[in-house]
Write a structure and sequence with these properties.
heterodimer, A: mainly alpha, two-stranded antiparallel sheet, two-stranded antiparallel ribbon, 21 helices, globular, B: mainly alpha, 2 strands
Chain lengths: 510, 500
Amino acid sequence: MNGPPILSAIIFAPFAGALLLALVPRARPAAVRAVALAASLSTLALALACAGSFDRGAAGYQLVERHAWISSLNVHYYLGLDGLSLVLILLTGIVAPAGLAVSWSQARDPRLFSLLFLAAQGSALGVFLALDFFHWFLFWELSLVPTFFLIKLWGGAGASRAAYQFVIYTLAGSAFLLLGFAAIFAATGSLDFAALGRLGASGELSARLASLGGFWPEAVFLGVLAGFAVKVPLYPFHTWLPAAYAEAPTGVSMFLTGVMSKMGVYGFLRILWPLFPAALHAAAGPLLWLALGGVVFGAFAATRQDDLKRMVAYSSLNHVSYCLMALFAVVSPAGPSAPAATAALSGAILQMFNHGLSASALFLCIGVLESRAGGRRGLGDFGGVRSAAPIFAGLCGIAMFSSLGLPGLNGFVGEFLIFRGVFGLAPWAAAVGCLGLLGTALFLLTFWQRVFHGPRAGAAAGEFRDLAGPNFVVLGALVALMFLFGLLPGLLTGIYNPLVTAWVGGLPTP
Amino acid sequence: MSLLPWTFLLSLLGAGAALAAGRHSAAAARRVALGTVLASWAVVVAAAFRFTPAPRLQTLVDLAWIPALGVRFHLAVDGISLTLLMLTGIAATAGVLFSWNIEERTGEFFAFYLTLIAGVYGVFLSADAFLFFVFYELAIVPKYFLIAIWGSTNREYGAMKLVLYSFAGSALVLAGLLWAYAAGGGHGFGFEDLAAAAAGFTRGQQIGMFALVFFGFAVLAGLFPFHTWAPTGHVAAPTAASMLLAGVVMKLGAYGCLRVAMPLFPAGLDFWQPLVAWLAVIGIVYAGLVALVQDDCKFVIGYSSVSHMGFVMLGLAAANLRSVAGAVLQMFSHGVIAGLLFAVVGRMVYDRTHTRKLAELRLLPLARLLPFAAVVFVLAGLASMGLPGFSGFPAELSILIGAWQAAPLWAAVAALGVLVAAAFTLRVVVATFFGPATPGGEAAPLPAPLPPITWPERAGALLLLGATVVVGLKPDLLLNWIVPSLHSPLLQAALKGGTP
């Protein structure tokens, strides 16, 4: 309660930067960049400061800020940090400045672009830190506005349609979410996630909703589920994803996949699961199939793509579905084994972070290829890039292998933990999920061979500059982090271990 | 507190002064009008500072007027009326600012405008049904002239339709009130007298009276299927009149439903509740879908008003503390937001481009020609979509919670309306300002520059935007007035349970 309001500072730093940008003259792009990058990076510095003072032995919320806000709706200004949110604000602090830094080569109005980007970053941080539905939903919805304009105004040829599809689809999910919480408030008089979580754990919440009778209690659960399922996305609610990720400009694609897809997974872990443990348990069977559908379909759809960006977009669907697969496998048995559940949940959180790094790195690589090839980014538009641009090829290869889950790189640890856990909980699901690993290997190796190997061809036939400038710095930093967290995953797991232990402790025992 | 009668007195005096000043010069008339609306708004603000929320109407003035009929000149205020007085002050000020470019018969324009404002202030202050009705009519007549003289598309048709609907609605209200007055023994038209008399009515009488009074008022509130006057009227009206029409005048109808029909005839409310609620949710979705396919952006906003007023009517129909508090908040919120939308479309865009067709606006790079208007329209659109951070969100959330308590299905269908609202708002915002001409960036040459946005437009837009953001972030500012008033004995008769 005491001490400086550091969580508020994390959220407001990007918004303050955006306001400041509005005052910087448009004609001074250097100043625009400096202000934007400083504001964006400041959240990383603040998040690291939080990580430094974070009590790694505790599972509860730390650095809590709670003030009365709207008395008649019992709404509080309520921020808090636990292991899950800390991992995600660190991720946001890394991916957002990275996305911003690689976006400046696009000439059109860098001021407005940076302003919108910072607003998106601030809203994502708000989502990860707010603990009252009203406060949280503010940021959840707000995040759509800048991303809509970033996709629509700076995206590719089909951007307008993609942006609409993305926003309308997500808003449809949000409308159900809003209705679900209206019902929850009508039943409990509270919008506080922690308090509702306690009601959910004791079964009080479902008992109160059950008094509605008919299909309504299930409808409330499904409404909240729909909101998150679209955002993640959970197969088959993913149809907005390939177009949005492919049409968005590179930096925005990095942010969408690195940070925004995590907002949905976060919603599952922070809100849906604690509030509706029984309903989620009941629905876990079909949901696990849907997650597996995302794993397998995402991977094999990626093998069928010619557009590299769509390929990585589908691979994102595959990777994020692993997180959901882990969660659904944990809640599906009546009494899961504790070590397996711990491994699966640890892996899911780690996978959120790792996928954020590797997918944004891959989108950056494709952005580089695209800019060198004058906007083309088909598999057949390149060849022999390795000999033309060895540094770029090396870094890009590492990012691919991280995405593939090669030991020693970060992606391995998360996927290994997930599979280890899921195997102990639902062996058949782990077996089906392995198909996804196979598909991932297929398309990434195809990508590697067709683009980087062979004789120089396509866009790489003529002059092809190697990586330099902000792209080099950003990709290099991301790759360094891949090694760091691949070799020392304890840096992250140490943050949230007590939280996962507490989660597993709350599960029904066999 | 006794300051408040000055709101309509000042407005009436200002109307006369504007007429006189208009003979001298248009600029003088404008200044008189702005001074008048600012002064009467200042009266509301001053009264708001002195206001202590209480579960009753707080009498300001109570004089005998027509003793033979028991009619009294009785003015009173509670948190609900104060909220709407505040809305009137804000909307009236913004309306004058957005009418700064009226050159034709300026004095008369502002005279009608201020008379309309006086009527609106009067309605929100009346505690006697007869007086209420007098002010209500005072507000309707100037609307006709504002539209018929200074309007645009189809103005005679729009004006006539609007006035005929309004008069038909008021005739129903009058019939219902006279019936109640006669059946109660003719003791008086004061709300409390009528309520006392109504307690002795049979259920059948209450059902009949409620139907007349409620649906009479609901015409003006734009309840489906009595809403058809609204889009044509809004489109035909000059900008400031559209702003007031959607922003304030539609609220008169909803206010009448809440202040007169619901507390006086609770048994009638009980009987008609499902029908009213269903009409409201159908209106929310239907008007939203119609807005989705309009090609004239003023029609889009006209239908969006009907959709948003559907939320108000749903909140009233659900008849519990939370839903009605949400409905009053939504009245304020929609008043501000609709005003803003009409101001951008009617004043900032149409007065410069002379088109409101989305197909034509699409081809203009308006976001680059009028960046200020683009930013305002985007923010107003977000507010209109009910995004959190703007006043529409707490209002619609309260209404949804209350409606869910009354009947989950109403809330579920209304939530669909939220989605439709997002779709049509996004469509109109993008088509108006971010058409295919925009993404070309600096590459495409700009067409001839449009006249720049003037200071009154900026001031008016900032005023309205500020109001929706402040209330969106701190809805307690208004809810702390509204909620205690809902505990008054009169309203408690109409409301059913639900904790505040």
